[in-house]
Specification:
The chain is an all-alpha fold. It has one domain: Domain of unknown function DUF1476 (Major Prion Protein, Orthogonal Bundle), CATH 1.10.790. Helices cover 81% and strands 0% of the residues. It is built from four helices and no strands. The longest helix is centred in the first third of the chain and has 38 residues. The protein is elongated, with a radius of gyration of 17 Å. 20% of the residues are buried.
Length: 104
């Protein structure tokens, strides 16, 4: 295998790893967001876990994060505004990425 082929393979492996980490971080963020929203909705225990799974599943409706935002925003109508939800999504994504990095 040539040096070029090795570099290309390394680049492809890094890209695949980065995409996997991004997917895991977003899924983790969505669970955390679901648990946060569940708390605002007065859910706890298994009901909160079930709601968090609903939020995770909502992310598969369309590309991007708007499907998750829309789900949580609709469910939290009157309990949290758009700015609060979006800020929470951003903060939880940062937290989820940090946890994945620390986990190794």
């Amino acid at each position: 295998m040539s040096t070029f082929d090795e570099r290309e393979r390394a680049f492809e492996n890094k890209y695949a790893h980065d995409m996997e980490m991004q997917f895991k971080a977003v899924a983790r963020r969505n669970k955390k967001l679901g648990l946060w929203a569940a708390d605002l909705l007065g859910k706890d225990g298994q009901a909160a876990e079930d709601y968090a799974m609903e939020v995770i599943r909502a992310d598969f409706e369309e590309a991007g994060h708007e499907d998750v935002f829309r789900k949580v925003s609709d469910d939290l109508a009157g309990r949290a505004d758009e700015t609060t939800i979006r800020a929470q999504m951003e903060a939880l994504l940062i937290e989820a990425k940090r946890e994945l990095v620390e986990r190794g």
